[in-house]
Amino acid sequence: MSGEFVTRAQAALPRLGATDKRFIELVLSDPEAVVRGSVTELAQKAGVAQSSAVRACQRIGYRGYQDVKLAITRDLAQQNEQEQELAHEEGIDSRTPAGDILDRILRRSGRALADAVQTVDPELLSLTIDRIATATRVLVIGIGTSAAPAHDAAYRLSALGLVTTFPTDVRAQHLAARHLDESCACLVISHTGASRESLLAAEAARTAGAFTVAITSFTNSPLTRVVDAPLIAGGPEYGFRLEAMASRLAHLGIIDTLFVGIAVRHPKTSTKALDVMADITIEHSL
């Protein structure tokens, strides 16, 4: 199962206390039990007080148990047999036809993009658009599998006329972060939010006074505790490799959102910059 509830619960799970986690993990293991049963029944099954069960629902962003039940009911209604075939990475093996692999991967990629709407904070997203749009300089950070989305982000921001840098060397990233100031912004992209190199650069940028934002997959990671604006967009849990791939697409979706948001904030400037990009594209075309 994927959808609003699962996305929120998985993103929040690492930061929950033991009691809250026990109840939410029980719900994740059998979401349909929430639809069939009462909060009292599930609380007893989890070995927690009813008040603790309600509090656990509130800790992951709902007003209470009934809101969780409604969210799960909606998610279940959106499922079909084909979407349920691949719950984990092991569902695809050497015997799986290529067409089936394509169908399953793209369906789950689409779900990751849809689920990101539930986890990205609109106010933090709006703040990020405003601060990056007015920054004198933007530093983009990303390593490993996050390097490609980071490169894309830097290119798109540059296309809007923003002074943007994306050093590929981790020490160069750290050094560039140290040279930022209050007029600058630093965008860090990291699936886990726990990469030491990205974290060092984010800490350096914030210490320097820059506005810091992270595009990441988990609510409670070392990175989200450092930056000013964590934008959480994680893929459903399919097994780590597929999860990371789905999340990368969600991160690209957030980058596209920033691009459009900044462009419409300053239409005249953006139009002029995009016209320059169009001219260059034509010059490099055969």
UniProtKB/TrEMBL annotation:
The entry's keywords: DNA-binding, Transcription, Transcription regulation
Molecular function per GO: carbohydrate derivative binding; DNA binding; DNA-binding transcription factor activity
Pfam family, one: HTH_6
Residues in HTH rpiR-type domain copies: 3-79
All copies of domain SIS, residue ranges: 128-268
GO biological process, one term: carbohydrate derivative metabolic process
InterPro entries on file: Homeodomain-like_sf, HTH_RpiR, RpiR-like, RpiR-like_SIS, SIS_dom, SIS_dom_sf, WH-like_DNA-bd_sf
Gene3D superfamilies, sorted: Glucose-6-phosphate isomerase like protein, domain 1, Winged helix-like DNA-binding domain superfamily/Winged helix DNA-binding domain
PROSITE patterns, per the entry: HTH_RPIR, SIS
Record's protein name: MurR/RpiR family transcriptional regulator
Organism: Streptomyces malaysiensis
Organism ancestry: Bacteria, Bacillati, Actinomycetota, Actinomycetes, Kitasatosporales
